[in-house]
Amino acid sequence: MKKLKKQIESIDGVISCRLTGEDNLDEVHIISDDTRMPKRIVRDIETIVLVETGEELNHKKISIASLNNYSDSNNERAIELISVYHENNRPICNYKFKIGNEMKNESIEGSNVEGIAWLSAKGMIEVIEKYELINGNIQMENVCLTGKDGNAVLVELQIFLGRNFQSGQKLLGAVYINNNLPLAAAKAALKALNRQINYSEQL
Fold this sequence. Notes:
By secondary structure, the chain is an alpha+beta fold. The chain folds into two domains: 2-66, 2-Layer Sandwich (GMP Synthetase, Chain A, domain 3); 72-202, 2-Layer Sandwich (Double Stranded RNA Binding Domain), CATH 3.30.160.270. The chain is built from four helices and nine strands, in the order αββαββββαβββα. It has helices at 2-9, 38-53, 116-130, 181-199; strands spanning 14-20, 27-32, 62-66, 79-86, 92-99, 102-109, 137-146, 152-161, 167-176. It has a three-stranded mixed beta sheet with strand order 1-2-3, with helices on one face. A three-stranded antiparallel beta sheet has the order 4-5-6. α3 (116-130) runs parallel beside α4 (181-199). The protein is elongated, with a radius of gyration of 19 Å. The two termini are 13 Å apart.
């Protein structure tokens, strides 16, 4: 049941869930945000239950309460990125951000061989790790420009959770550049990790 609960909570749009039943799953109760239609979440739950238990769960046993305008700022561990400044001719990014209601500043130094986007995204990960917002091991795999005319930046990560960090999961985040590549790259990394930040304590 514990494994099944974690997998359901990893579904996009799901904030938290509660499973009822002792030996066999009886009902699934979900709190979701308003980013996805409830019917889509129900289908995802049905698929996960079928794959994990080998049994079909009647959709009538799945209840969903949607929180409109749910914001990560409701979480005291949530991080809000304010700005990123890349120092000219130096592999250093300066980050201004909030954790809960507390303002923070950090300077992260990288290598001269790293591009600005990679440096900024990697620095954002180091900030997250420094403040222990995720109980896991994060590896950055790729940073590239994407979209029409390269107007967005994509960050690809892999995070290892669980005992001995053996459970790997691929994560992607993409943000429009809007004439600020360092900020966009950092936001893309943060976007990829956002759900893990919010729910890492439950893993």
